[in-house]
Amino acid sequence: MSTGEPHRRVVDGRFELVERLGGGGMGVVWRAHDLALHRDVAVKEVRPSDPDLAEYDPEGARTLRERVLREARALARVHHPNVVTIHHIVDGGEHAYPWIVMELVEGGSLQDRLRQGPMPPAEAARLGREVLAALRAAHAVGIEHRDVKPANVLLRPDGRPVLTDFGIAAVRESAGLTATGAVIGSPDFMAPERVGGKAGGPAADLWSLAMMLYVAVEGDHPLRRGSTLATLAAVLGEDVPAPRRAGPLTPVLGALLVRDPQARPDAAEVDRMLAIAAGQTPSPSSPLRPAAPTSYPLGPPAAPTSYPLAPPVGGATPAVAHTAPTRRAHRARVSVLAGAFGAAALAGVLGWTLLPHLLRDTGDGGGASSAPGVAVSSSASTAPDARQTGRPSTGGATARKADLLDGDGVARTVAKLTAAMGGSKVTSLAVYEEYAIAEAPVHGRPKLYDRYMYRGGDVAAKDGPGGVVMTGTVPVDLRLYDWDAVPALLARAGRTLGVPKPTSRYLLVNPASEVFGTDPSMSVYLSDDYGSAYLRADVHGRVIETHPRDDG
C-alpha cells in the first residue's frame, strides 16, 4: 500500500481507502475511491486470522497467497448479475497478501435485512433462486463458495442479491492453514460433511443455501448453540427440526438438509423446486418433472405429514402429503439414521478438528465403540439408575473404567489439566467419561491455543499444538465454575432430555463469545443411536436452557 500524503492511504497508487466497511477472520473490506476511473469500489485485503502465519509457517502463507490469486482470477471470469464483480487484483509480491478490488454493493446484506424480521417464504424462495444461480456460475468454473450465509449475500438497492466473499474457498484449501486446526467458514452454516473433514463439493454449498433460507423464514437457526464446539456437535449429531413457517419452501429444505450429500437433489432440481415455491416458471434448463417426494427427512418422521403451501386467492390452503419413499429418499432416510448414530459418536470427539487427532489413538473401531468415551451397550436393557443418571448400561458384563463425570471426577479432571496448562484459562473444555480435552491460549500469543489431554491417573499432558482461537472467543477461567453441580445436571438431563438409554454423555464448557453475544456457561449432552439432546447451565450450575429431543 502506497501513501502519497501522510493522511491518505492509497493501494497500488490508485485506490484511496475511504472508510472501513467490515472485517473478519479473512481480512478487512474498505470503501475506496478509484482515482483513475473516478468511481467508488470495495477493496479487500485477504489475509489469515493469524497475522504471524508467515513467521511460523512461511510455506502455508505462500500457498494461501497463490490460492487466493488463482481463485480471484478464476472468479473474475464469472460474469453473472448475482456474483460480485472483480475489477482488479493487486499483487504485492511474495511477502504480501493480495488486495481484491470489487464492485461496491450499497444495499446492505441479507443479514441486515433479517434483523428486521423473517422473510415471507415466496420472497425467500426468489432470493434463494438467484443465489443458487450465482453458485451454479461459480461451480461451472470449479469454484465452491464454502461460506454461504446471510452476511455474504449483499443486496442491491432494488433488492437483488449478490453473492460475495468467495475468498474463503482459497483459504479453506490451504494446507498450511487447515493443519493448524482452525475452523474455516461459519460453523452453523457448514454442511455436515465439511464439519467432518471431508472434501465437500457443490452439494455442500446447497446445504448452506438451504440452511440460510431456513433461517430467513424461521427467524432463528435450528442448530446454533452457545459455543462453536457445541454448534459443530449439533451439525454432526442432530437432525434439523421441520420448519414451521416455510410453507412452499418446506419441500426444498427437506430435500437439501439431509446428511448424505448424494441424497440431495442437484442444482437444476433445486432451481425447479425454488421456482415453484416462489410462484415462478421453472427455467428451461430445469424441465418440469414430478415433484421430489417430501419424505426427505429433516428429522425422524413420526407419521404422514402435510406441508402447507401458500394459500390460493380466496381458497383453502392446499397441502402436499408424504408419499411412499423413492429409492433416493429411502437412501437418504437410511443415511440419516446411520449418520445419527455415527454423528453422535463423532460429536463426542469433536473439538474443531479433533476427530483425526483422536482416531490416531483409537483406530477405526471394530468394537462396540468407534471413539473413546462412547460406550455402546450390547444389552437391550438399562440399569435401574440409567434414566436418573444419564449413564448407559454396561449390562454387568464388563467392569467400567473410572468415569470422569461421576462424583468429583470433573473437579479432579480440571485440577489435573490446570496443573499441566500452567493456568486455569481455556478456550474450550470437553469432558467425556474416559478422557477430557482442554484448549488453552498460548502464553504471549493469545490468538493461538495448545491442546491438553487427561485420561485419568496422576497427570494430564500436552497433546500437541492446537490451532487458531476462533474469532470472538473470550477465554474463560475454569475457577469460575461450580464443578460439584455437574452430577446433579447429569441426573436432571437423564430425567428431562428424552434420551432414556444414552450411549454417550459429555460436558462442554462454553466460553463467552463476542460473536454470539453469550456469557460463559456449560452444557450437558446425552446421545444415543438417534441423535442427542442437551441442557445448558450457568457457571453455578443453574439450568438456563433445556433442549430435549423431540421424537415425535
From TrEMBL:
Biased composition, Low complexity: where in the chain? Answer: 281-295, 369-386
According to the entry, every stretch annotated as the Protein kinase domain falls at 15-276
Q: Does the keyword Cell inner membrane apply?
A: no
Question: A single Pfam family, by name?
Answer: Pkinase
The terms under GO molecular function for this entry are: ATP binding; protein serine/threonine kinase activity
- Enzyme Commission number(s) from the entry: 2.7.11.1
- Show the stretches that span the lipid bilayer: 334-355
- Output the superkingdom of the source species: Bacteria
What Gene3D superfamilies does the record tag this protein with? Phosphorylase Kinase, domain 1 (3.30.200.20), Transferase(Phosphotransferase) domain 1 (1.10.510.10)
Under the heading InterPro entries, the entry gives: Kinase-like_dom_sf, Prot_kinase_dom, Protein_kinase_ATP_BS, Ser/Thr_kinase_AS
Q: Which UniProt keywords apply?
A: ATP-binding, Kinase, Membrane, Nucleotide-binding, Serine/threonine-protein kinase, Transferase, Transmembrane, Transmembrane helix
**Chain positions covered by the region annotation Disordered:** 279-303, 365-401
Q: Which SUPFAM superfamilies match?
A: Protein kinase-like (PK-like)
Chain residues that bind ATP:
44
Identify this protein by name: non-specific serine/threonine protein kinase
Protein's organism: Streptomyces humidus
